[in-house]
Design a protein that fits this description.
- This protein is of the alpha+beta class.
- It is about 25% helix and about 20% strand.
- It has helices at about 20-30, 55-75, 90-95, 105-115, 125-135, 160-165, 200-210, 255-260, 290-305; strands at about 5-10, 15, 35-40, 145-150, 155, 165, 180, 180-190, 210-220, 220-230, 235, 240-245, 270, 280-285, 315.
- Strands 1, 2, 4, 8, 9, 10, 11, 13 and 14 form a nine-stranded mixed sheet that branches. A two-stranded parallel ribbon has the order 3-12.
- InterPro entries: Papain-like_cys_pep_sf, Peptidase_C54, Peptidase_C54_cat.
- This is Cysteine protease.
């Protein structure tokens, strides 16, 4: 008898690995796949980088999680991409990530904003750094209608997030008029050189929450975007393949159609969860306040009450003993596992491999 294997993906769908293989492939292909690119406009001037090959993998993973958030927010979690797709909202989202100086979430914007986080152009990012950069960039794109909160010190501060997401009435200056959709990123360090098995159950549960956007992380020397899990394996999209830069525009020419195809991967890869690098960032999308409240309850029930060693904590107010605010502390979350320093990493130029 063949054993049923269940795959949980970031769109909250749960599939039977044997009977739903076509649906699984369509779901994976519908996600935006950002990879190394070459021959784009130089970053930071005429002498700047024209490719992010060898250093941009974590930046591309950051693009993938933000791109997925925008697809879910503006098109819905059940929306699926087809090669013939010319949906104007989809194309508008995709153009925001193209490799140009003008695109708000391009490799150019992310790399140059990273300088303010202490990372020179061409230097490898950690999960927390890319989260902090995206948090800054999202403020300049009103159409996206989303805000980013990076929860440091392994703690979600509920009232800080609600104050951030509640839109003020400009006439009365009162809150609670509306809720701005939230991309919540929680950087964590789950071990020294490898993941402590005590965190595995909690990490797998995160993929099952309906608010899940997956996990930014990788394996040693390689940044990856984890989008789901099958048993003790994690499913991921790999940015380590180099494609030519180009623009999708309105997807009217053969070249533009080819560019669109290059943003969708036919097959995801997978690996044992214990082979993940312990430095990760867990991501969630809350379109409404009710979804955020539900996420908090899910975390309490599944990650705090039921776990001996919770992945992270929830508190209503910011702990008084904190020496810094949630808006400071570059790489603070990555550098502390429970107080231990982060290992030095070097990005790799490994080939993309379908498993």
């Amino acid at each position: 008898m063949v054993k049923t294997r269940i795959i949980s993906l970031t769109d909250t769908f749960t599939f039977n690995l044997l009977s739903d293989i076509i649906k699984i492939r369509q779901d994976i292909t519908s996600k935006l796949w950002f990879t190394y690119r070459k021959n784009f406009v130089p970053i930071g001037g005429d002498d700047g980088s024209v490719s992010d090959k060898g250093w941009g993998c974590m930046l591309r993973c950051g693009q993938m999680v933000l791109g997925q958030a925008l697809l879910f927010l503006h098109l819905g979690r059940e929306w699926l991409w087809e090669p013939e797709t010319k949906d104007t909202t989809y194309l508008r989202i995709l153009r925001k990530f193209e490799d140009s100086r003008q695109a708000p979430f391009s490799i150019h914007q992310i790399a140059l904003t990273g300088v303010s986080e202490g990372k020179a152009v061409g230097q490898w990012f950690g999960p927390n750094t890319v989260a902090q950069v995206l948090k800054k960039l999202i403020k300049y794109d009103e159409w996206s209608s989303i805000t980013i909160h990076v929860a440091l010190d392994n703690t979600i501060v509920v009232n800080d997030i609600k104050e951030l997401c509640h839109i003020k009435d400009q006439s009365t200056k009162l809150l609670r008029i509306n809720w701005k959709s939230l991309l919540l990123i929680v950087p964590l360090r789950l071990g020294l050189s490898e993941i402590n098995p005590i965190y595995v159950t909690g990490l797998k549960k995160c993929f099952q929450f309906k608010q899940s956007l997956g996990v930014i992380g990788g394996k040693p020397n390689l940044a990856l975007y984890f989008i789901g899990c099958i048993g003790n394996e994690v499913v991921y999209l790999d940015p380590h393949t180099t494609q030519r830069a180009g623009s999708v525009n309105n997807k009217e020419t053969e070249d533009e159609i080819e560019v669109d195809l290059s943003y969708h991967c036919k097959y995801a890869s997978r690996m044992n969860i214990l082979n993940m690098d312990p430095s990760v960032a867990v991501c969630f999308l809350c379109k409404t306040e009710a979804e955020f409240n539900d996420l908090c309850q899910l975390i309490k029930d599944n990650l705090i009450i039921s776990e001996k060693q919770p992945l992270f904590e929830i508190t209503l107010e910011k702990p008084k003993q904190w020496m810094t605010t949630l808006d400071t502390g570059i790489e603070a979350a990555e550098a502390s596992v429970l107080g231990m320093p982060e290992d030095k990493r070097i990005d790799s130029d490994s080939e993309f491999e379908i498993l």
